[in-house]
Amino acid sequence: MNSLRLMGLGKVASARQALSGIRDGSVIAVSGFNMSTTPELLLEELYRIYKETGHPRYLFLISDTFPGAPGRALDRVFEELYKEGDDEFIEGVLMPYLGWSKWLQKMVLEDRIEAYTWSIGVMAYWFREVGSGRPGVLTRVGLGTFFDPRMDGGYLNERARKSGRARVQLITIDGEEYLLYTAPQPDVALIRGSTADELGNLTMEDEAIYGTVLNIAQATKAYPKKGLVVAQVLRVARYGSLNPKEVAVPGPLVDYVVVASPDKHWQTASINYDPRIAGRIIPPISEDLVGRMQLSIRKVIARRVLLELVKLAVDEGRQIIVNLGVGIPSHVMQVAVEEKVEEVIATTIESGPWGGVPLTGPDFGAAIGPYAIIQMPDQFAIYEGGVIDAASLGFLQIDKEGNVNPSMLPGRLPGPGGFPVIISGAPRIYYAGGFTAGKRDIRIVDGKLYIIKDGDVSKFVERVYKVFCPCKRMVDAGREVLVITERAVFRMESNGLKLEEVAPGVDVERDIIGKMEFKPIIKREPEEMPKEIFRPEPMRLRRLLEEAGKR
After folding, report:
1. How far is Cα 38 from Cα 265, in angstroms, rounded to an integer?
2. Residues 470 and 356 in one domain
3. How many domains does the chain have?
4. What is the pTM of this model?
5. Is 270 within a domain?
6. Who contacts 95 (Cβ-Cβ below 8 Å, separation ≥6)?
7. Residues with active-site annotation
8. Domain range for 508
9. What is the β-pairing status of strands 441-445 and 367-368?
């Protein structure tokens, strides 16, 4: 066995054998965009070893997103830790998203573990940069926001501030400000693929995404640490039988291969395996696949966003590249299919898929029938570099200065996700969401909006709880920023939010200004929002494309 190990063979091991050498205080990098690429078996076995032996403990976990879903993988571990009052197994985390684990959020809010958060894109870059021997990520993403050390520095609690294990530093180069994101290099990587051969070469043919799996292995193996890499797979193949072009992680980067049963290797939170998600079958995009939305305020908002995208495609005379975020923006493609204009909009998900039908909720990150899937750092390079044409994202709060908070409130720490990098590069940003939050009764009757009962939570506030998008910077840089709701459309200007459109049936003073903590800019009588978005029949957007094709 020793000679085989020396030759690079004999890498297949049980989870316990592969993980037994992990030491106390290790920094462990774990792949996982929700359940996609999450090594569920490895996480659960590592925790089981700790419970039986008391070691390893005081671990610091780093992930490209969040390796789990409600009741699965890391969330299940944190549920037990929280309920048992155990603060020794995991000492801290650096993760872009905590939203699928209320137990992790509780431990962070109670200051039981140190916790940091960066954007998914910065995190994905960080693995690649550390794997290249560089100290961290140097970028303009996060300036003037929660990540800026002049504000919160990415710290989620007091324990993190005192430790400072993951830091964001302000750097000036030729008079320009940048942020340098640094954290400890991983000692251990827990990653996932579909098939491994006897030398550890790893393919990902059954996975929903590539994610950051290769880069996590690179960061762990980079000089001087040369850490431990353990890969979870579904099967083992004979050496030489894998197509070298399909190898996502070369064998010399992998120390151990652990075979998992399919019940610990799901493509997404609710889907064990679907060939359409793995890219083996590309189904035609149709209403049968995506479904048709009933007329509602969510559909009204999605339609108004789609109008902007179709007009942009007509103006550019080509297919446009967009990112559609979670929540209401995720419905835009449903409406596009209904309007038969989906071919002019190339959708992307930050985890790597292009095209297809994006999944939502805990399944977010995967798509049915994508025509391309690329690695996550490359996807975020497209966002930060402004290669995309537009992005539509949700919002939680917007203030009078145009600052946007997409997710955080006191007692609620889901994290930034991919938001900061996407908005930093997108030339056009269409924020989309309900005008108020809370229990509402808003109806659409005969092409008009009737607010029977409004939400009791204002989303247009004097000052956002945390700044994640300083829109003045976006506007001053020449970006277009719109805020689209069911009752009004605003345009972001350098001096604030300007009211441009109002829904039919809505009273400006009562239903808009009266529901805001500040008064928007009103330079003239607002226009009426397009009537067709409030009608049950399709908007016939296809004709815009056909008319443009005749010109």
Report:
1. 8
2. yes
3. 2
4. 0.94
5. no
6. 61, 62, 63, 65, 66, 115, 116, 117, 123, 415
7. 350
8. 288-550
9. unpaired
